[in-house]
Automatic annotation (TrEMBL):
Species name: Desulfuromusa kysingii
Entry GO MF terms: metal ion binding; peptide deformylase activity
Protein name, as recorded: Peptide deformylase
Family membership noted in the UniProt record: Belongs to the polypeptide deformylase family.
Cofactor note: Binds 1 Fe(2+) ion.
HAMAP family for this protein: Pep_deformylase (MF_00163)
Amino acid sequence: MALLEILRYPDPLLKQKSAPVSEFNDQLKQLAADMVETMYAAPGVGLAAPQVGALQRLIILDCSAKDEPADLLVAVNPEIIAGEGDSLEEEGCLSVPGYWASVKRHATVTLRYQDTDGQVHEREADGLLAIGMQHEIDHLEGVLFVDRLSPLKRSMFRKKYMKALKEKEAKNAEA
C-alpha cells in the first residue's frame, strides 16, 4: 500500500466529474487500499477518488469513533437512491484543510453501491455517515462542500482561503 497525495483546493481536477467504474480488478482494489491508508493517515473520515487524482466513482468512509472497531465502507459507483429530512452540520474536507462550514444535507439516505468485486449493496444511514456519503459523492460530481455555501459565504471563503494560501507560499519561498 502507498500513501497518495491529496489534491487541495483550487486544483482543477477537483471540479471534474468522475467516470463510472466498469472494471473490477486488482488495480481498483489497490486504489481502494491506498485510499484507505491515505484517509487514515490524513486523518479523515472519508475520501473520494478524485481527491487523489483518480477520476473514478469510488469513495471510502469510516465514521466510527477512534476507540471503536473500524466501520469501513468502500463504495464503487455509489448513488443516493433516497434521502429524507434536513440536516445542517459543520463539515470539513481533506482537500480544503483548515476550513469548516455548515452545509444543508439530507438527514437520512439510502446508498446503492458496488463493492470492489462488483457486487451490488444498499445501505441506509443517518448522522455523520449520511453526511459523509453525500459529501463524498459530491466529489464524484466535481462539487466541493464550499460550493454548497451561499454566494456570500462562498465569496468570503475564497478570499480568505486564497489569501492564506498565498501567505503560506510566500513563507515557504522565504525558507
